[in-house]
Design brief:
233 residues; mainly alpha; 2 strands; rod-shaped
């Protein structure tokens, strides 16, 4: 149901201000959306690059694991893997990207000290451990990049909905209210002009009638004065 607005000049000025504000808001949101789209495509390229690196690192890591089990034995490799620290601390910062708070994950720093004695471990096992550390870093990079990509994509959708709401609902609604108020005000002005013209016509007619009556009275009085002057002579 459309909002009922009193057709007054103050409401007309208020709706014009709202229209200007809505147009400026839509323009700013479009600029924000364009900037986010540019950032989105940049993140897509970064995400694809991180995915390719993950695939390559994963292939190398599992191949090194296969070789380690083949050379050192699966029992030795699995027992050494249990000695590793399962907790990994990450440095996560929040970046404000065009009003969107996205996480920025720093690359993890692994302790150079091995969680087990390298004396009893084979070279293949040590290489597999290093490869899986690189795989962990690649997984974190992919997760961070795709999280940023998802958040930016959601913000683009949200901004597009706001732009569409302004351009398709708010702005046309305010424009329709402005047209309605202006139509009523113009009709009132036309009626007032018509009434004023009628009043002026009546006043002019009354003035003409009074002037005519005054002239007739003056014309009637002149013969009477002449007759009185002749009688006295």
């Amino acid at each position: 149901m459309a909002e009922q607005i009193a057709p007054t000049r103050s409401n007309l000025l208020q709706r014009r201000d709202q229209l200007n504000l809505a147009n400026r808001g839509a323009d700013l949101l479009k600029r924000k959306r364009d900037a986010l789209i540019g950032e989105f495509f940049s993140l897509v390229q970064e995400s694809l690059k991180a995915r390719r690196a993950l695939n390559s690192t994963s292939r190398d890591a599992y191949f090194s694991l296969f070789l380690a089990k083949a050379w050192d034995g699966p029992e030795a490799v699995e027992s050494l893997s249990l000695a590793g620290d399962k907790q990994l601390e990450l440095d996560i910062k929040v970046q404000n990207l065009f009003g969107v708070k996205v996480p920025q994950v720093q690359p993890p720093e692994f302790d150079t000290k091995l969680p087990f004695s390298p004396v009893g471990a084979g070279a293949r096992t040590l290489d597999a451990a290093a490869q899986f550390r690189a795989l962990t870093a690649a997984l974190i990079q992919v997760a961070a990049t795709e999280t940023r990509l998802r958040l930016v994509g959601e913000e683009i959708k949200k901004t597009s909905r706001r732009v569409n709401a302004l351009e398709q609902i708010v702005i046309p609604g305010v424009q329709a209210q402005i047209r309605d108020i202006r139509s009523v005000l113009d009709q009132r002005a036309l009626e007032e002009t018509t009434v004023l013209k009628r009043i002026k016509a009546k006043l002019d007619a009354r003035e003409e009638a009074e002037n005519a009556e005054a002239a007739e009275t003056a014309a009637t009085a002149l013969p009477q004065k002449g007759s009185m002057a002749a009688t006295s002579a």
